[in-house]
């Protein structure tokens, strides 16, 4: 019978201790908040980032959204995929996606009519 070295035992314990932290990345995504999201665009100019407010949108549990970045509100529908991302249909965001990011209650919003390429949107009540 062969005995393990003390170093091998320490390494094995370290790996076991780290296991729960590595598994946390596989947890279910945080649920979408059905509320108002404020959006900003960022532009790099003269060595600095400029942040520009781009209005807000509200999502409801009924699968509807409204964007209030114009004089007249734009409305449409959305669905939620398994990762918790929003997919928009109709309205200003038609064909767009709000992708969850690593920060709670924040999304990257991309859609065909977007002049800024991507917006960052966050819950206004978080």
CATH class wording of the domain at 36-123: Mainly Beta
Residue share in helix: 10-25%
Large-scale geometry: globular
Low-confidence stretches at least 5 residues in length (pLDDT < 50)? 7-25
* Helix count, DSSP H or I runs of 4 or more residues: 1
- Return the string of H and E elements: HEEEEEEEE
Q: State the secondary-structure class.
A: mainly beta
**Strand content range:** 35-45%
Task: State the end-to-end CA separation.
Answer: 59 Å
Quick summary of this structure?
By secondary structure, the protein is mainly β. The chain contains 1 helix and 8 strands. It has a domain at 36-123: Beta Barrel (Lipocalin).
Give a verbal description of the structure.
Residues 1-25 form the signal peptide. Keywords: Signal. The protein is 14% helix and 40% strand. With 126 residues, it is mainly β. It has a domain at 36-123: Lipocalin (Beta Barrel), CATH 2.40.128. It has an 8-stranded antiparallel barrel. Mean pLDDT is 82; it is low at 7-25.
What are the key terms here?
126 residues; mainly beta; Lipocalin; eight-stranded antiparallel β-barrel; 8 strands
Ordered list of secondary-structure elements with their pairings:
Blueprint: H1 6-23, E1 36-45, E2 48-59, E3 64-67, E4 74-80, E5 86-89, E6 97-100, E7 106-110, E8 119-123
Antiparallel strand pairs: 1-2, 1-8, 2-3, 3-4, 4-5, 5-6, 6-7, 7-8
